[in-house]
Predict the structure.
Amino acid sequence: MQFGERVRELRVQQGLTQQTVADRMSVSVSYISKVENGKLHFGDYPSEKFIHKLADELKADEDELLLLADKVPASIRSRIRQNPELFRRLAQMDRRSLKALEKSLVSNK
Amino acid sequence: MQFGERVRELRVQQGLTQQTVADRMSVSVSYISKVENGKLHFGDYPSEKFIHKLADELKADEDELLLLADKVPASIRSRIRQNPELFRRLAQMDRRSLKALEKSLVSNK
DNA sequence: CTGCATGTTGACCCAAAAGTGCAAGTAGCT
DNA sequence: AGCTACTTGCACTTTTGGGTCAACATGCAG
């Protein structure tokens, strides 16, 4: 799932038009359109500030959107800072091990 | 330990002057000074590109410096992208659980 | 005490990123 | 045909990041 797709999905789910969202966020419609279509002038995603406001407006999970936009949410960043060794280790693990770890965490939630 | 402190420490350990480092990196001395003192006009830390070069020049561990500068090293970022759910979950765990997890990972490395 | 080496700071500058806004177009509906 | 929602190119403005420069402190060797 791409960032823009998800944004559109959220917007449509709430029966909102681009115009409405644009107005509420006080940005231009064309910008919203470009965001949803991933056609920003440069860079693939809007700024974190924008995403923050957008998540608010669409009652969406900000971290989910940040992750889709390939940005690291503050919640995760602060964990990394507190525990760098753990995360460096995770970074070195292969995908299968990570998947396995995810499973084990989900089970004993 | 703060980013700037660590940079100074590394520089002094190698008997280098700010001027030397500045020259080698082809930036101005004043910039190096500000970096070490955390007095950048804006933002608290230099760019990732700068940190990369700096780590190189000071023969330091780039990821260590990145983490001190509250940035997420590419190695970790790419893992997050591949596995966002895992990392969201980790972000929600408390410190004790994370410590425990780290221990378990170290043991069955 | 002077003069050089080193480091610090504020004011300023420039380029790139982020977003604006129009105009002209597409597509579906009634 | 005409309305509504959306798309897209383009030129423009604003903001922010990353840096320089010049002037100032400070320590210390001769």
User: Anything to note?
Assistant: Chain A has eight helices and no strands. The two ends of chain A are 25 Å apart (CA to CA). Residues 95-107 of chain A form the longest helix (13 residues). The interface with chain B takes residues 63, 67, 70, 72-73, 75-77, 79-93, 95, 98-99, 101-102, 105-106 of chain A (CB under 8 Å).
